[in-house]
Amino acid sequence: MDVQRKLEILADAAKYDASCASSGTEKRDSRDGKGIGSTDPGMGICHSYAPDGRCISLLKVLLTNACNYDCLYCVNRATSNVPRARFTIDEVVKLTLDFYRRNYIEGLFLSSGIIRSADYTMEQVVSVARKLREQHHFRGYIHLKTIPEADDALIAEAGKYADRLSINIEVPEETSLAKLAPEKNVRAIRRTMGRLRLKLDEAQEGRKVTPKGNTAPRFAPAGQSTQMIIGADTANDQTILNTSANLYGSYRLKRVYYSAFSPIPDASRSLPLAAPPLVREHRLYQADWLMRFYGFDVGEIVEQTEGMLSLDIDPKLAWALRHRDRFPIDINRASREDLLRVPGFGTKAVERIIATRRFTSVRSADLARLHIPRNKALPFIVLSDHRPAPHLLDAAGLIERFKPKPAQLGFGF
Ligand code: SF4
Q1: Could you tell me if 62 and 13 are in contact, meaning their C-beta atoms sit under 8 angstroms apart?
Q2: What topology does CATH give the domain 3-28+37-226?
Q3: pTM, rounded to two decimals
């Protein structure tokens, strides 16, 4: 099988991993003599975010989509009827370097099905990174998927070469994992996450105490992340977010990625027939940001009785509508913590408000400059020239103002 065909199979097999989303970019090239560079081939190239917030393109592939395990939600499981392929270490190294030189990518995202044993597979994955770094002095970004059952020494070596390491927690509840992925062991997953955290902490400490000029041993400077599949089991949003909060707290993860389950060919009967609405994944990301950057607890974000986030409105707006007694908030006096709870206010907008009000009071005309959506924010805030009518905030129908307008379904012609 030629490398091009392997790339087709192994890039397609990697697309279900949400840790870096598929780019979906348009194809462009400079073959007509105009411009420089190309996005072709888009195959296997995804976009991800570097620790400094830059959007970077990564070559996202599996080393192989053959796998000993039979995780029911996975298209690469042992009993799946898909074409199989396997890259050699040198093929992945060469592809990465070729794509890098042509400016298609700024790094590599490498995962693999488990073949022979966890240690053998991890050794293969690490070998790609080792060769790129040591033989070719590759300075681009490397994200490696870690196999939890692999030997500690291999994982330590992976951290030496990778910028980021990730281990997929797969599903939010232990009981679901036992049902859907019987070969996977939640204890091994959590134990390895714990070890990664210790190594990350040690590396951070080392950087602090190492005298100037000496470099402390490097270990995955972009930290560790994980992915949870949403909608493959019956876990509600509250359970999912509780699991995330626990993961962030216990293992200091940089990110939890939520990947809406997508039905796969020849799926097991234990799996739902349809994918959950994509907007559910989006709402979970919004809720995740509220936990990490806006000072919310899970218990505040999800309505206890229902356990699910609203699909119609974002979770901060839903919280504000449940706590109208805390509004309106005077933008020119409120604390940073209270400003962060106003619907439509992002973290940057809050910083800009605080900077602005040091010199002058904030008026309604300033909202556009601060990138604050007027319609969403005005019922909840007091400005020097605006105070919402009391009946507006108390109105039972206020929520209707924010819900998406009903649209007639298309006829397909
Ligand atoms: S171990 Fe990974 S690649 Fe293999 S079946 Fe499970 S999820 Fe898929």
Answers
A1: yes
A2: TIM Barrel (3.20.20)
A3: 0.85
